[in-house]
Amino acid sequence: MDYEPLREWANKASPFMMHNGILITDVADGCATASADLGQLSLNPYGAAHGGFLFTMADCATGVAVHTDGRHYVTLNSSLNFIRMAKDGTVTADARVVKRGQSVSVADVVITCCGQEVATGTFTYFCLDAQAEQ
Fold this sequence. Notes:
Blueprint: H1 4-13, H2 15-19, E1 23-28, E2 31-37, H3 51-67, E3 73-82, E4 90-100, E5 104-113, E6 116-127, H4 128-133
């Protein structure tokens, strides 16, 4: 299956993602990668990647990963564990679907910077298409 249209849509559909300089770089069946270069607007007062910035990256990557089945989703729940600071370079969020159900799907994400894990998390999504079928 060709996931290029999904990648292109994701990079244009979210002004919030674009505002934060986050791009979906790769999409495959049940997987997606988001990346962004750290800059002044993505840092916290300590000069490290802001937690909200990392969370946004994780949400974007996992959201695209669950969308690879062609259905429509919204975030239902999420958890992100911060492991270490990222101070400069390119941050990458690699997501993969670990459970796909009729109405709920779950994806894990690993965020790295300069070859080191920065954060890991799990995001749960509700399928809007399942709600329409009821």
